[in-house]
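Async update (no meeting this week)

Hi team, since we skipped the sync, here's where things stand on the single-chain job. The sequence we agreed to prioritize is pasted below, unchanged from the tracker. I ran it this morning and attached the output directly underneath so nobody has to dig for it. Comments welcome in thread, and please keep replies under the output.
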Amino acid sequence: MQSRTIRTDVLDVAYEEHGPSGGAVVVLLHGFPYDVRCFDEVAPSLAAAGCRVLVPYLRGYGPTRFLSPSTPRSGEQAALGHDLLQFMNALGLGSAVLAGYDWGGRAACIVAALWPERVRCLVSCTGYNIQNIARSVDPVPAEQEHRFWYQYYFHTERGRAGLTKDRRDICRLLWKLWSPEWAFDEATFEKSAISFDNPDFVEVVIQSYRHRYGYALGDPALAGIEERLAAQPKITVPTINLHGGHDGVGPAPQVDGNAKFFTGAYERRLIPHVGHNVPQEAPSDTIAALRDLMKGTTE
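Output:
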């Protein structure tokens, strides 16, 4: 494994690279509040099979840094998709296999939906992760509303202060709530938690959760992408949706409502006893999904 950095239009993106430089390219994308360590069992296995595996730190995490203090510290969905596209452009990647969950799954879904020629196939945990911001004000059943407590907390200045002061405490609690059967230890948590010390972590997170509800303005430079995403574009590339059967923030419904957003080959795989952090909790299932998709697609 090599630790590297690549410069895009607004970021120095830190990433880890595994495997031969000429292998089929797989980009693995982490979510909130996690980091690249969630792929520690996935990336080496794919690399051993001959893949070139790239695992970037998202904006606001780990060693990734903004180039300019004037760039908005936005965590909106358009920013995540834009960053992934620019990361691929900077590395000269014509197309790649994408896999992600939570924020990383959102980035992967956005690139797959808007630039499908750049995506060979997609593993997206929980399925269609593109937000419908226009409908974000619509209430959902109380049982789901209470799972979003952290989002509403971040809408307040008290929440910003809390995340600034107690980011490890908050993020550790989210790990426990979202993956109730995952018996991680403090050492495992701390390996990822150091990424939350990024100087832009708080601002990116706060903006993300405010923007998705219309409580914060987006980056004007990304308005065109947000406009396209408002149409809830379909995803045409072959996709496997890995959904943890015990996901504490987004429980898997009996009827898969995601299927309508996928017009290409699509499959949902429910994984019993697994929570929100699918790649780290179920690395073998993640690897199997990627290998199955790559068998049926070409570069």
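Quick observations from my side:
The chain has a mean pLDDT of 97.
The chain is about 35% helix and 15% strand.
Reply here if anything looks off.
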